[in-house]
Amino acid sequence: MPQYGIKENLEKVQNIINEECIKAGRNSTEVTLVAVSKTKPVEMLNEAYEYGCRDFGENKVQELLDKYEAMPKDIRWHMIGHLQRNKVKYIVDKVYMIHSVDSLRLAQEISKEAVKKSVTVNILIEVNVANEETKFGVKVEDTLELVREIAKLPNIFVKGLMTIAPYVDDGEKNRKIFNKLCKLAVDIRKENIDNICMDLLSMGMSGDYPVAVSEGATHVRVGTGIFGSR
Ligand SMILES: *Cc1c(COP(=O)(O)O)cnc(C)c1O
Questions:
Q1: Among 30, 36, 41, 103, which one is least packed by beta carbons within 10 Å?
Q2: 3-state class of 93 per DSSP?
């Protein structure tokens, strides 16, 4: 495989997103490309920033904080990794959205710290659609109940759902998983729960983001496809 630069990679990924949107009859402005920059140095993030990237995804609190300090302040930081409750306080006022909320206890902690800092935190509920034992995420059948409980908490705003699909050689193999997450969001939306919105779907990574876009993703999380292998 030829070695492209970050600029070429960003263009390529964005072009594929645009094509999938056209095929699906969607507007490409509905899809946000989150550049997953974990383990990559600030220089590489700055390069992506120069080419217009404003949404970055990190999976570790300390790394996110270091990069937050080092990078321009108009960046939207997405916390996409498993979050420990004792670290919530460091990021609630710095992240644009937390994609990985999968328990009431974590949501309560986010709410508590958000109240202290007088901010509102946007979150997504991480759903383990594939039912993989090794993965974090709430079970499909427990998601509605969790959303109902989180809806009662102050200063936390559920915007939608997130899932991490299995690693596959062919992204098509994950189509059912993405479709299932989308249907789950539709079902929860029908419940008309106060303070809940189900507009966002964070799904799709380097190996399967075109399929995720065709199934309704609003946020794709692409690392390797932009910055190269880790
Ligand atoms: C690392 C990571 C990604 C990006 O994975 P790539 O295969 O490199 O695109 C997306 N989502 C989450 C939650 C991750 O941890």
A1: 41
A2: coil
